[in-house]
Amino acid sequence: MSRDADGSNTGTPNQVERATVALDAAFGPDGDAPSSRSTPAPTVAVAPGRVNLVGGHTDYNDGLCLPMAVDRHVAVAARPRSDDRLRVRAADFDETAELDPDDDPGGWAAYVAAVARVLREDDPVGGADLAIASDVPTGAGLSSSAALELAVGRALLAVSGRDRPVADLALACWRAEVEGVGVECGILDQFSAALCEADSALFLDCRSRETESVPLGDDAGVLVIDTGVSHELTESGYNDRVRECEAALDRLREVADRGLDSLRDVDRALLDAHADALESVHSRRVRHVVTENERVRRARDALAAGDLDRVGDAMLAAHESLRDDYEVSCPELDAAVELAAETPGVYGARMTGGGFGGSAVALVDGDALDRAERAIRAAAPERVGPDATCSPAARRPAFDWSARSKREPTAPRGVSGKIGTRVPCVLPWFRFGLRLVEQRSTLCCWLAEAYASSNEANRGFAGSTSRFTPRRILSSEARLIRRRLTPRRTASRRRPCALRRRPCPASRRGPASPESRCTRPR
Ligand code: GLA
Asked: Per the record, where are the segments of Polar residues compositional bias (predicted)?
């Protein structure tokens, strides 16, 4: 929602604080609590946006995905009401909605109403006063709507004293999106917002709904390149792609000699045997789904083995497939991926989310992350588009959103501000001092650990956000320095652009110049 250039509204603790302040400002600190009850501390629920490393448009075909959470979040502060109304304040839009259970609003309130409606089918979810604050940009392909649904769902259940297994809640939020908002999406976004763990990718089987956390490892960094071109699933060709996959599946069912529940059951051999029976466009859509599932498996295994080169290769191949076979990319996304692939330290990149705009994601050598971010950010306005930006998907250590999604008092007001003020004051000097000695001695490791563990600043911040304290940040600095002093598992190198370029007729820039053509045959 918020896209403040100066970053003043960004940062997850800030969203928690903003939601809490907005709740009190809109509805008063007592809400409509009956006088016999003491004023309840607000519940604050948080859910993250996501990028998808590999596995695009496979979810509604019962396929495989490999998403990870970004440290942009939706926070929802909530207090129960004595009736069944929802009063909802959207801090980012400066708007308030009042909803009765049967209301069917439009805009952002549609997501809140749809989640409440679906939850009430199985749970006696009461009314609530809610305030929403977010720094997940809308239309950027980072799944702001699923993050909103999950945070609202968690908040509503918590204030009603209910609980659900997290996968059930994710499914309820998915139904809210499909039935309430009209996007025929798969479960990727809601499962990502519900189940991604910090510093890990989530291997998600959309058929069995089994998940497995795959740690990113210390050597990996991830960048998000927002093209600045807004994507809107309800108005894009997204539902057309869903229809095309259904049509292809129907045809394959007619000609195949075995039962097919979904395109997940199609493999290369079956597709090759019956490609002629399909319209050419349908054959390309199926080829994307089949090969993308293979790439997700490859990327999962490679990530688990710490082979970031192979993960990067899978990402680049996924982008080609989404661009050429599935046709959901656009010139700005192609340019963002090309720019990333040419940048030193980048292992691979691809569009993420539904496509037709939004963001690209790049997997980067952790040590080169800052440099790669600066290089891409500098070149993006000219290469990608005037509003294009680049930022890390997650700081290390990542904010632990699950810790905030419990019924607990929020950080005392004013205290969380220290995240924004004290740490940045200390950190540049700390880094400077360490880098002076980093080449010569392991002493800096000891220094960093000692500094981190004695750091007084930690004491002021609420313990519940334990993964985002100054002490943790400084400890992670210590880890970073130690890594620099240790021989690397994966050699850091400049990768030639591995993306097969295709002159794009729709591109504003026209075909690639011979100089910028890829040098590495694939
Ligand atoms: C959108 C949808 C998801 C998924 C992706 C493409 O984000 O909401 O369900 O289909 O596009 O992978």
From this structure: 7-17
